[in-house]
Amino acid sequence: MYLAVLLGLTAVITGCSTDGPSRFFTAQYGAVTDAGYTLPSIPVEKVPSQFRRQIVSYKTAEKPGTIIVDTKQKFLFLVQENGKAMRYGIGVGRDGFEWSGTARVALKREWPTWTPPSEMIKRQPELAKWRGGMPPGLNNPLGARALYLFNKGGDTGYRLHGTPEWNSIGKAMSSGCIRLMNQDIIDLYNRVQVGAKVIVQ
Fold this sequence. Notes:
This protein is an alpha+beta fold and 201 residues long. It has a single domain, classed as L,D-transpeptidase catalytic domain-like. 15% of the residues lie in helices and 35% in strands. It is built from 3 helices and 15 strands. Strands 1-2-5-8-7-6-15-10-11-12-14 form an 11-stranded mixed β-sheet, with helices on one face. Strands 3-4 form a two-stranded antiparallel sheet. It has a two-stranded parallel sheet with strand order 9-13. A hairpin with a 4-residue loop joins strand 7 (75-79) and strand 8 (84-89). The longest helix has 14 residues, at 2-15. The protein is globular. Belongs to the YkuD family. This is L,D-transpeptidase.
């Protein structure tokens, strides 16, 4: 009995540990089978702790359910009740591809098709083979999920999406999209509603 209780406590501590004001979800980066695909586990010990999914104290006038992207700190905050937010580490646009503004989540897609824009194909002609769309899969640049951002002018062309390149989190490497580890984009996808406000700053 004592051993069972001890093991149970160990599992809880591993899954959601507390470090000051933050709650980490370190056990949430294991292999995931989803829609017939098996996402590999992420070597979370190689991911700086600040970029691991965690609940943090966060003061804002924005309503719960709002997404706030801090491109300088490389964090995405999903505003929650009672002065809290779920925080995720992100990768952002490299020099010359940064952007900021307000948008809304217009579409959500599981295992999306990736279609490189014509401007990207001009820069990287080898991507022309995917002009009609790259099928979903473990190597697809959009990863396991994508949230499509629209503003008053329509589709911004920017996405919040997964990536198989977990080691790009915390860096400026993308063409402007905001990327999360696949296990994190699945978590975010499940929490966010179509129509959610997104602030990129």
